[in-house]
Amino acid sequence: QVYLVQSGAEVKKPGASVKVSCKTSDNIFNKNGISWFRQAPGQGLEWMGWTSARSGSTKYAQSFEDRVTLTTDPSTTTAYLEVRNLISDDTAVYYCASDWSDVHPDTADHWGQGTLVTVSS
Amino acid sequence: DVVMTQSPLSLPVTLGQPASISCRSSRTIVYSDGNTYLNWFHQRPGQSPRRLIYKVSNRDSGVPDRFSGSGSGTDFTLKISRVEAEDVGVYYCMQGASWPYTFGQGTKLEIK
User: Fold this and answer.
1) How do strand A18-24 and strand B10-13 relate by DSSP bridges?
2) Confidence of residue A90 (pLDDT cuts 50, 70, 90)
3) Rounded to 5 degrees, what angle do the CA atoms A36, A37, A40 make?
4) Is A27 left (phi over 0), alpha (psi -120 to 50) or beta?
5) Which of residues 53-72 of B touch A (CB under 8 A)?
6) For A36-74, how does the pLDDT look when each residue is reduced to its tens digit (9 = 90+)?
7) From CA A14, how far away is CA A86, in angstroms rounded?
8) Which chain B residues have a beta carbon less than 8 Å from that of A107?
9) Which residue in B55, B99, B103 is closest to A45 by CB distance?
10) Mean of per-residue pLDDT scores for chain A
11) Are B102 and B66 in contact (CB under 8 A)?
12) 10 Å Cβ neighbour count for B32?
C-alpha cells in the first residue's frame, strides 16, 4: 500500500515559522526520496526541495535554501518541511510527493493531499 | 534551470473530440541513467496533481488509454484521443532530469 498523508491547514503571522508533516507508507519512506512542492493561489507548481531518508541527503531549490529545512523521522516514517521567516507570498498549498532514489528511478509518482498554509497578520 | 514552455495555455474542446498539448524544454532532459524524466500531470480544482504519464510515454496505473505521451529531445506532446467531461482541469508537464525540477505554466482544458 502506498500513501502520503499530510498535516492540516495552518495560519501563521509574518515572520513566524511553519512545520508541515508528511506521513508515508514504509515502502515509500525506506526506498524513495520525498520532494516538496508548493502552489500559490491560482498559480502553477513549484519544486522546493528533495530529501531521502535512505541516503541521508537533501537538495534545495536555490530560492528556498536559506529559509527551508527538510527532515525525516525513521521512527514514524514521516517527512517534514519547515519554512522560516514567513511572508505573505508564502501563502500556498504545500505538497509532498514520492520521488527519485537510486533504487526508485521515478519522479513525483504519488502525492499527498496538500496542506494550506496561510500567512496573514 | 530548465525552462518548460507549454502551449496552448487555454484549450476549449468539444466532448468526444481529440486534444493535444505541447511542452518544450530549454535543453534536453535526459538523466545520466539514460531516462528522459518528462512527466504529465492533471489537476482538478482543490485536488492534488495526479500523474498521468511518466518518462515521456508510460501511462500510470489506472490512467485511461485515451491519454498518450510522446516526444524526444526537447519537444513533447500529451494527447487525449477523445475528451470526456472528467478531463477538465489543468495539465502540467514537468522535467525531473535535473534539479530544480521545473514545470510548464499549465494548460487549462475546458469543455466547449
Assistant:
1) unpaired
2) very high
3) 145
4) alpha
5) 54-55, 60
6) 999 999 999 999 999 999 888 999 999 999 999 999 999
7) 5
8) 37, 39, 54, 94, 96, 101
9) B103
10) 96
11) no
12) 7
Beta-carbon pairs below 8 A across chains A and B: 56
Tens of pLDDT, residue by residue over B48-107, are 999 999 999 999 999 999 999 999 999 999 999 999 999 999 999 999 999 999 999 999
User: Strands B107-111, B10-13: parallel, antiparallel or unpaired by DSSP?
Assistant: parallel
Q: Residue A101: which pLDDT band, with cuts at 50, 70 and 90? A: confident
What are A92's three cell numbers? Answer: 500556498
Q: Which of A65, A84, A70, A66 is nearest to A13 (CA)?
A: A84
Q: How many residues does chain A have?
A: 121
Q: Do A107 and B48 touch (CB under 8 A)?
A: no
On chain A, the residues whose CB falls within 8 A of the CB of B41 are 45, 108
Residue of B nearest to A35 (CA): B101
**Does the beta carbon of B32 lie under 8 angstroms from any beta carbon of chain A?**
no
CA distance A43 to A117: 15
Say which amino acid occupies B15.
L
Q: Which three cell numbers stand for residue A88?
A: 505573505
Cα–Cα separations (whole angstroms), residue B40 to A107, B66, B69, B71: 11, 14, 8, 12
